[in-house]
Structures are given as structure tokens and as C-alpha cells.
Specification:
The chain is an alpha+beta fold and about 650 residues long. The chain contains twelve helices and 13 strands.
Length: about 650
């Protein structure tokens, strides 16, 4: 077996399709550095299935595609084909020549072909295994591989020697077989868990099927009983109906004569009813007018109160403004006094300046001191001038405020006059509305008296009509009593049906204890009937209870012993629990932090205080999860 030729297209530096033929003996490839000698060896390793980009001097597998040059554009794919002479039959295939082709596109798609037939990488690896060909086989010797053979690492030598000895294929098959066995073992474990769960569901469905069949049988029997009972009641009622029909015909004749009289009275009553309707309409209009008057009075009262409040607020504002005006006048008087003091100080300062000037002329030595005194007096005069200007500005502001206050006071006086006028008008309207209200009340009393008289006539007519219908009602009552007798019989049949089918679907031991044993009254009931389950959780709770769902609950241990003795004597089976369960419960496990766990199943079951300890014991460490895989994982991790 030898390589006959190699076809390369688009691989690294090979832009054009290149075919290299290998003759007998040794073929050498010679050329300067960078001409692509190593690319030929890497092309052989790549077409034989090399998956590591670093083994062919690349960062990613797309680097093997021709990337382009200054004069040539990049290619979109790389293809390498190697042809092997198989005339000696070393490859397990019925061909004298075998061509392996590998293609890689820039999109990441990769194809393998064996003699131009698409295949998998695994098919190529199985074909070349133990032949010395392959990406890591000894047929392609690099400089580093010689060091691996002579190194002290036995793993490297062993890998190459196993490839040469032809046992790599068997080791790979053994490794694959072991992986399949481990996967199969895991599937079997999961299958056993699924079988257990399915078995519990089958048991549940079996009990449901038994109940359904029993229900169908009892339904058929019930229909037969109802049919016979109805037939018997029909003939009995038909005999009772004959005298009632005779009496009914007599009453019908009497009723016809009474109906004629009733029609005449009805016409008269209709006339009076129209009169009552007209009176009620008049009364209603008067009531509407009265309501409008009352609303207008309330609205006027509210307006009067609002106007009074605004008036009081304005009076308070006038008082505050008057106080502020008095304060401004006082401040103005003080400012005038300060101005007079400043003018007096100015006169004194001027006299002091004159005296200082004379002293300057007389005493030359005190000139400097006089000049200092003059400067100080000048600064004091400037300060007094500033104060005088500030006082003038403040006086102007206070005068403007006084003018504004006077204007506002005049406006308040005008508003007060308007309020007084409005108040007088409201008082006049109030008196007029009061007069109208008195007249409306008088009309209302008159209308009520007429309405009372008409209602008395109407009630008398109704009484006469009732008397004419009494005989007819007695006949109808007899028919109703007969119908109630039929309904009572049907109710008794339904009660018997519920009693008879109440425990169908349970085991024979439970039915014997509840129906045939002398201890029937000692039991509180069946556990499944003593608890309430949230909607949609019936099957989950029944699966968690198992056979205990149809177990009996007894008030004490003595009742439990009596029941078990009775069941054993009659060769039956039944579960019995004491009401107050005192056995130590298992240690609770908190699984709520685990992904997939919804809530403890106990949260969906409600029970009375008597049976709550028993329910707690049966549902300890039972959780509702999202799926079966989560349940199996929790069962393995928390088997204890």
C-alpha cells in the first residue's frame, strides 16, 4: 500500500489545482524557504482527518483556505484528494485504488468523500485505522515525533507502537463499546424508575377502571329500578287523577262564570288604575319640582355662606392694611425726626469747619490735626447725606403703599355693598321658594289622599279575584302533592344509589369493614375522603399516598386492633391507621433551593386537626417537581 498521487486546490498557497504523482521508491520535494514544501505534508495530514488547526500551523480551520495575494483574489473553498494504491488489500474495501477527498468552505461546512461518494469522518478514520495512515499515525514523521519515540514518556512510544501493531482500531472500538455500555446502563436505571412510576399509574388506572365498571353496572340497575318505579307510580297516579279530573271540570265551569264577573271588575279596575297612574304622574312632577326647589335653596345657602366668608376675609384684610398704614405713618414720622437731626448735625459740622479754618490761620502747628478733623467731619457728612436719601426713598415707597391700600379699601367697600345687595336678593328668593314649597306640600297631601283611596279599591278587587281562584288552587295542590311524592321516591332511590356505590372501587377488606363488619360505626372514614386536595393535584396526591389512599382511619388503637383482627379472620386485606398518629416522622429535607422543585406536596392537601399528623407522616419529604428527570435526580441524590 502506497500513496500514488495527491491533488491540491485552494489549500494554503496552492491557488491553482495541483497534482503531485508519487512513483516507486522515495520522492523528495526540494525548494527554497517559503515555497510551500511543508504545505504538501500538511495537506496530506489534513485530508487524512486532522482536526487541530494548530497541527497545521493555523489558528482556526478556515486558515487553510487560500487567503489571496496582491494579484489573486481569495478562494471560497479548499479541497485535497489523496489516492492510495490498495492492490495488496490492506484497506478493508474492495477497490484497488482508494481516493479520500476533504473539502472545507468559508461558511464552515465540511465534506468528506470516499471514491467520490459522500461519507463521514468516522468512516474515513475506521478505514485508515491500524494502517499507519492518519493525522497522528507514524506514516507522517515530523521532527518532534522522533523525539517522542526516543523520549522517556512511555505514553508517546506506546501510542506509535500500537498504531504500528494494528491494535488501535480495536482499542477505539472497545472504548466506543464501553461508552455505549455506560449509556445503556444509565438508560436501564432510568427505565427502571420509569417502570416503577408507570406501574403506580397502572395501579391507579386499574382502580379507576374497577370503579367505572361498577358505576356502569349500578347505573344500568338504577335505570331498571327507576323504570319499574315510574311505571308503578304512573298507574297509581292515573287512578288518583280520575276523580280529580271530574272535580276539575266542575271547578272549571264555576271558574268560567266567575271569570265573566272578574272581567267586568277588571275593566272597572283598569279605569281606576289609569286614574291612579295619572295621579302618580302628577305626584311625581310635584316631587321633581320640590326637589329642584330644595336644591336651589341649598345652592343659595352655599352661595350666601361663601359670600359671607369672602366678606369676612376682606374685612380682616382691611384691618391688617389699616394697621400697616398706621405703622407706615409712624415710621414716616420717625424718618422726618431723623432728617431734622441730620440737618442739625450738618450745621454743627459746618461751624466746626469754620472754627477749624480760623485755627489753621492762627496756629500753624495744629494744621495737620485740623485737617484730620475736617476729613472725619466730611465722612460723617457724607454718611448723613446717604441716610437722608434713604429716608426720602423709603418715604416714597410708603406713600405708594398708602395709595395702594386706599385703593384696595375702596374696592372692598364696593364689594361689601355688592354682597349686601346679593344677600337681600337671596333672602327675597328664599321667601318666594318657601311660599312655593308650602303650596307644593299641600298638593302632595291631596294627591296622596287620592292615591290611598284608589289603592283601597284596587286591593278589594284583588281579594275578590283571589276568592274566585281558591277552588282551582286546591286542585293544583293535589297534583303538586302527587308530583312531590314522585320526587321523594326518586330522591330515596338516589340516596340508596349513593350508599350502595359509595365504596365501590375499594378493596374487599375495606368494603367488608365499612359494610358487613360490626365495627362500621367505629371508623372516621377513608383517608382519601378525609382530605381536600387542590385542583389538579388529585393524581399526584393519590400516587404519593399509594395504597394508603383507601386506608381506614380509626379513632384509637383499640379500634385499629379490632379491625385488623376482623380482616385477618375473613382472609381479607385492609389498611387501618389511628387518627392521632404518634410515630416519629422522618427528618424533613429542604429541597426548595434546588432548580425544578415547585413546592412540598403537603401544601396542596388540607386536613382536619385529627388526621393532620397522619397526613404529615405520609407526605414527609414528598415534593412536586417540574418533570420526571428532576424527580429521578432528586431520588438518586437523596436516597437516604
Amino acid at each position: 500500500m502506497r500513496v500514488s498521487h495527491l491533488d491540491v486546490f485552494g489549500f494554503k498557497s496552492f491557488y491553482n489545482k495541483t497534482s503531485i504523482h508519487f512513483g516507486d521508491g522515495i520522492t523528495g520535494i526540494v525548494g527554497p524557504n517559503g515555497c510551500g514544501k511543508s504545505n504538501v505534508v500538511e495537506a496530506i495530514r489534513w485530508v487524512l482527518g486532522e482536526q487541530r488547526a494548530s497541527a497545521i500551523r493555523g489558528h482556526k480551520m478556515e486558515d487553510v483556505i487560500f487567503a489571496g495575494t496582491r494579484n489573486r483574489k481569495p478562494l471560497g473553498m479548499s479541497e485535497v484528494s489523496i489516492t492510495v494504491d490498495n492492490s495488496e488489500g490492506m484497506l478493508p474495501i474492495d477497490y484497488s485504488e482508494v481516493t479520500v477527498t476533504r473539502r472545507l468552505f468559508r461558511s464552515g461546512e465540511s465534506d468528506y468523500l470516499l471514491n467520490k461518494v459522500p461519507c463521514r469522518l468516522l468512516d474515513v478514520q475506521n478505514l485508515l485505522m491500524d494502517t499507519g495512515l492518519g493525522p497522528g499515525a507514524y506514516s507522517v514523521m515530523e521532527q518532534g515525533m522522533v523525539d517522542e519515540i526516543v523520549s522517556e514518556k512511555t505514553e508517546n512510544r506506546r501510542r506509535i507502537l500500537e498504531e504500528a501493531a494494528g491494535i488501535t482500531k480495536y482499542k477505539a472500538r472497545r472504548r466506543s463499546t464501553w461508552n455505549k455500555l455506560e449509556s445503556t446502563e444509565a438508560d436501564l436505571t432510568r427505565l427502571e424508575d420509569i417502570i416503577v412510576e408507570v406501574k403506580r399509574q397502572v395501579d391507579y388506572l386499574g382502580r379507576q377502571v374497577g370503579r367505572a365498571r361498577r358505576f356502569q353496572t349500578l347505573s344500568t340497575e338504577l335505570k331498571d329500578v327507576e323504570l319499574r318505579f315510574s311505571r308503578h307510580q304512573f298507574f297509581a297516579l292515573r287512578e288518583e287523577l280520575k276523580p280529580l279530573e271530574t272535580e276539575f271540570q266542575s271547578l272549571s265551569r264555576d271558574s268560567e262564570s266567575g271569570l265573566t264577573q272578574f272581567t267586568a271588575r277588571e275593566a272597572e279596575l283598569e279605569k281606576r288604575r289609569l286614574a291612579v297612574t295619572e295621579a302618580e304622574r302628577t305626584l311625581q312632577e310635584a316631587g321633581v319640582a320640590l326637589s329642584r326647589c330644595v336644591e336651589e335653596i341649598h345652592e343659595l345657602d352655599n352661595q350666601l355662606i361663601s359670600t359671607r366668608e369672602r366678606r369676612e376675609a376682606r374685612e380682616h384684610f382691611i384691618e391688617r392694611a389699616t394697621a400697616q398704614l398706621d405703622e407706615s405713618r409712624r415710621n414716616l414720622a420717625e424718618a422726618s425726626q431723623q432728617k431734622a437731626q441730620a440737618e442739625a448735625a450738618l450745621v454743627e459740622s459746618r461751624e466746626e469747619i469754620e472754627r477749624s479754618a480760623e485755627q489753621v490761620q492762627q496756629v500753624e502747628t495744629a494744621a495737620q490735626q485740623a485737617e484730620s478733623e475736617y476729613t472725619e467731619s466730611r465722612r460723617s457728612l457724607d454718611g448723613e447725606n446717604h441716610k437722608w436719601r434713604d429716608l426720602l426713598r423709603e418715604k416714597g415707597e410708603r406713600s405708594g403703599a398708602l395709595v395702594r391700600l386706599r385703593t384696595e379699601r375702596e374696592g372692598l367697600d364696593r364689594a361689601k355693598e355688592e354682597v349686601d345687595t346679593e344677600r337681600a336678593r337671596i333672602e327675597a328668593e328664599k321667601q318666594e321658594i318657601g311660599t312655593r314649597l308650602v303650596r307644593t306640600q299641600q298638593q302632595l297631601l291631596t294627591t296622596q289622599e287620592r292615591l290611598a283611596a284608589l289603592r283601597g279599591d284596587l286591593e278589594a278587587a284583588h281579594e275578590r279575584r283571589k276568592d274566585s281562584q281558591t277552588s282551582l288552587e286546591r286542585a293544583r295542590q293535589r297534583a303538586s302533592e302527587a308530583e312531590r311524592g314522585i320526587e321523594a321516591g326518586q330522591a330515596r332511590i338516589q340516596i340508596l344509589e349513593r350508599v350502595r356505590s359509595g365504596y365501590e372501587g375499594y378493596s374487599s377488606g375495606v368494603r367488608q369493614l365499612l359494610v358487613d363488619s360490626p365495627y362500621t360505626a367505629d371508623f372516621t372514614g377513608v383517608l382519601g375522603d378525609l382530605v381536600e386536595v387542590s385542583d389538579g393535584m388529585d393524581r399526584a396526591v393519590e400516587s404519593a399516598f399509594g395504597d394508603a389512599v383507601e386506608a381506614l382511619v380509626a379513632p384509637d388503637d383499640g379500634s385499629v386492633l379490632d379491625a385488623l383482627t376482623y380482616v385477618r379472620e375473613h382472609s381479607a386485606r385492609a389498611g387501618v391507621f389511628p387518627m392521632n398518629w404518634q410515630r416519629n416522622a422522618a427528618t424533613a429535607v429542604d429541597l426548595m433551593q434546588i432548580e425544578g422543585v415547585i413546592a412540598p406536596l403537603r401544601d396542596y392537601v388540607r386536613a382536619t386537626d385529627d388526621v393532620a399528623p397522619l397526613v404529615d407522616h405520609l407526605l414527609t419529604n414528598t415534593f412536586l417537581v417540574d418533570d420526571l428527570e428532576t424527580a429521578l435526580r432528586l431520588a438518586r441524590n437523596h436516597a437516604d
